[in-house]
């Protein structure tokens, strides 16, 4: 591999000395250079650091577009016939507290639902109200258009009168109202607030309908199409996606507590338990993981309505308990509940399968426990990247909400034939029939994809920086034979951070972008594979069968290659920290070291990584469980803070918890990887006997026999 690694990265204290070029020479552990990685380093992969900086400039520009054009209110509330967002205090008129969209003309709603109709529900006349109106029990209630023109009422007075100024109408206005042309419209059907839109219940009030007919009103269609049309609009895929994104904005306190504070607290506790109670941590992790999976699965079952009486409700506020309205959100919860059931079964069976290997995992974790005990600053260090990630995510989520709502409000190009009374011109107007919609251009979709990729790259970059610092600190500990100065416990971490900032940021930027790109390629390949699966499953011709088999084989090979690159990335970060090489050169060294010691590295890492992975899942699942409980409180089940579904906030909380756990668990993961890589290299340089393994490390693994048993293949 081009020279001994020990000579590359530092001097051996209390051994034969090394000269300035790294050759073995005299020196003791008490010297100023003892145990500290020394190497004639230089900045690596600067081009990719420049690319990363340019990427951040593009992220800021892209986010500024969202902040300038977006309005998160659009994700929750709908538009009225004037193009105003309900609840917008800057609209004309002032619509603060007027959050619910109500369609005035039931005949227009019916017409928009008729097959082959040229009239769309987006063009039906709708206004914003505080709550959905209900029919009168002994007469006829009216809902009138916004007061303007000759109607001398303020918006507040209009609200206080329950939106009814029919008594102030002129005879002409009353006549047009009876023709369902406004400005006042009868309340014939009851309605309920479903995701801030009034869902009609096609069960006309006999009293109200009788009064309407006696007054000479036009015929009103009583057809289930009215109900289905509004229900279809409210539950369209785009509307559901908007509500899911809006849920993240409404649940920001849950994200901060359950996605930030709770995983920080749990991760630190886990590291401390690894330090002081390593013998029982593997068993605790496996048992706790299964308990958390079962708990989260049961909560999904409850919200899906399969157990208990706490099923998700799509209705905002109070409603008739006999009225059952379903939505896509409930169906999605049921799908996730089924998936969690499968995960629960697999987790239980896997736990049984690895019981016999848990003792090996305990011995592996002892390595990290001893390093953490000697380099105690490693427990505190992940707080620094944690703070950086927290600041980044606050900016990123805010920008994401604005980008998702950054479409333009434009008037529809419709061909419907309708008329409505215009209070400003004081006459019936048949030329202003089209409503308004939010239009999304293709570049908005590209901006959102770029924003999502930016989040992944930035996250990988920060995690990679953290891993590199940890690897450098542990390498200092190993090659100094464990002689870390007790007076300066932070020295290895500070030195490793200095080397990262001065020499290796470009290499880390390159490694993180490779990991990000290959993960996106994996995502695209999975989507392509599913598409192939849903096409012709059994080609009739020999050529078709050959092409189908070849494509699946090629996709499998590409996927395996990508997974290998992704898995070995952290080992490459270890080599970057140890040698100071660029990412490409570190990849070559890592590949050679892995191939020469594949049985040694694999035997230790597989079981150790499984336990660490389960530990991360325990932290993230506990965050998801706590998020479920917070979202089940009154605050998030009523009024403006009501979320459409706990699905997205819980998933985001789970993801944030997993990322925070990754930052802290990297202390253990990188300690194991770095110690094992250094040990393997040490044994290669010294004919099978490690010379620089710290005495405390060997004692932890119960002597050299235990070390060889764990790290050597059969």
From TrEMBL:
Q: Where in the cell is it found?
A: Cell membrane; Membrane
> Which parts of the chain span the membrane according to its record?
46-67, 251-274, 281-302, 335-355, 375-396, 456-479, 500-525, 610-631, 651-668
This entry's Gene Ontology molecular function terms read:
transmembrane transporter activity
Q: Which UniProt keywords apply?
A: Glycoprotein, Membrane, Transmembrane, Transmembrane helix
Query: What is the recorded membrane topology of this protein?
Result: Multi-pass membrane protein
Top-rank taxon: Eukaryota
InterPro entries membership: Choline_transptr-like
One family from Pfam that matches here is Choline_transpo
GO terms under cellular component: plasma membrane
Family, per entry: Belongs to the CTL (choline transporter-like) family.
The entry's function note states: Choline transporter.
Protein name per Swiss-Prot or TrEMBL: Choline transporter-like protein
* Organism, as annotated: Zingiber officinale (Ginger)
């Amino acid at each position: 591999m081009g020279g001994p690694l020990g000579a590359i990265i530092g001097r051996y204290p209390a051994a034969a000395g090394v000269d300035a070029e790294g050759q073995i020479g005299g020196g003791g552990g008490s010297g100023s250079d003892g145990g500290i990685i020394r190497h004639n380093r230089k900045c690596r992969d600067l081009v990719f650091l420049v690319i990363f900086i340019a990427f951040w400039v593009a992220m800021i520009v892209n986010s500024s577009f969202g902040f300038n054009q977006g309005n998160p209110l659009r994700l929750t509330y709908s538009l009225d016939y004037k193009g105003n967002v309900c609840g917008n205090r800057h609209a004309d008129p002032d619509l603060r507290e007027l959050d619910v969209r109500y369609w005035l003309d039931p005949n227009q709603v019916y017409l928009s639902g008729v097959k082959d109709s040229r009239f769309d529900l987006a063009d039906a006349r709708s206004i914003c109200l505080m709550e959905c109106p209900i029919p009168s029990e002994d007469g006829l209630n009216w809902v009138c258009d916004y007061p303007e023109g000759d109607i001398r009422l303020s918006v507040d007075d209009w609200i206080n009168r329950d939106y009814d100024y029919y008594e102030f109408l002129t005879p002409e206005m009353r006549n047009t109202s009876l023709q369902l042309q406004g400005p006042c419209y009868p309340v014939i059907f009851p309605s309920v607030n479903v995701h801030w839109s009034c869902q009609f219940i096609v069960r006309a009030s006999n009293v109200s309908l009788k009064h309407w007919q006696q007054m000479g009103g036009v015929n009103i269609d009583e057809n289930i199409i009215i109900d289905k049309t509004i229900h279809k609009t409210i539950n369209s895929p785009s509307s559901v996606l908007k509500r899911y994104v809006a849920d993240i904005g409404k649940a920001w306190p849950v994200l901060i507590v359950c996605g930030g504070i709770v995983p920080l607290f749990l991760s630190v506790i886990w590291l401390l338990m690894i330090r002081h109670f390593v013998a029982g941590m593997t068993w605790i992790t496996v048992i706790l993981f299964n308990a958390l999976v079962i708990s989260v699965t049961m909560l999904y079952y409850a919200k899906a309505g399969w157990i208990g009486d706490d099923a998700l409700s799509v209705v905002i506020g109070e409603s008739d308990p006999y009225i059952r309205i379903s939505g896509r959100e409930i169906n999605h919860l049921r799908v996730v509940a089924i998936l969690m059931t499968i995960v629960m079964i697999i987790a239980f069976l896997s736990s049984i399968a690895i019981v016999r290997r848990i003792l090996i995992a305990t011995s592996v974790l002892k390595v990290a426990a001893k390093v953490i005990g000697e380099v105690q600053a490693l427990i505190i260090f992940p707080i620094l990247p944690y703070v950086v990630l927290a600041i980044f995510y606050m900016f990123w989520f805010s920008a994401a909400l604005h980008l998702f709502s950054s479409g333009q409000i434009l008037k529809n190009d419709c061909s419907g034939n309708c008329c409505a009374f215009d209070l400003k011109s004081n006459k019936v107007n048949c030329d202003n029939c089209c409503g308004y919609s939010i239009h999304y251009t293709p570049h908005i979709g590209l901006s959102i994809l770029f924003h999502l990729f930016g989040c992944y790259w930035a996250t990988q970059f920060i995690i990679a920086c953290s891993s590199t610092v940890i690897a450098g600190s542990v390498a200092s500990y190993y090659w100094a034979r464990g002689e870390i100065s007790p007076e300066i416990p932070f020295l290895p971490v500070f030195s490793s951070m200095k080397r990262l900032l001065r020499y290796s940021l470009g290499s880390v930027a390159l490694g993180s972008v490779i990991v990000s790109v290959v993960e996106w390629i994996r995502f695209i390949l999975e989507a392509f594979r599913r598409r192939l699966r849903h096409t012709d499953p059994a080609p009739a011709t020999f050529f078709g069968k050959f092409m189908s088999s070849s494509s699946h084989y090629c996709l499998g090979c590409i996927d395996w290659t990508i997974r290998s690159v992704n898995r070995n990335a952290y080992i490459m970060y270890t080599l970057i920290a140890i040698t100071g090489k660029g990412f490409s050169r570190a990849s070559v060294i890592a590949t050679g070291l892995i191939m020469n010691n594949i049985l040694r590295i694999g035997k230790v890492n597989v079981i150790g990584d499984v336990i660490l992975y389960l530990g991360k899942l325990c932290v993230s699942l506990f965050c998801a469980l706590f998020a479920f409980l917070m979202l089940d409180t009154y605050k998030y089940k009523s009024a403006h803070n009501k979320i459409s579904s706990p699905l997205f906030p819980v998933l985001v909380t789970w993801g944030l918890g997993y990322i925070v756990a990754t930052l802290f668990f990297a202390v253990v993961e990188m300690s194991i990887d770095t110690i094992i890589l250094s040990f393997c290299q040490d044994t290669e340089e010294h004919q099978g006997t490690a010379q620089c393994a710290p005495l405390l490390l060997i004692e932890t693994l119960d002597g050299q026999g235990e070390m060889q048993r764990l790290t050597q293949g059969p």
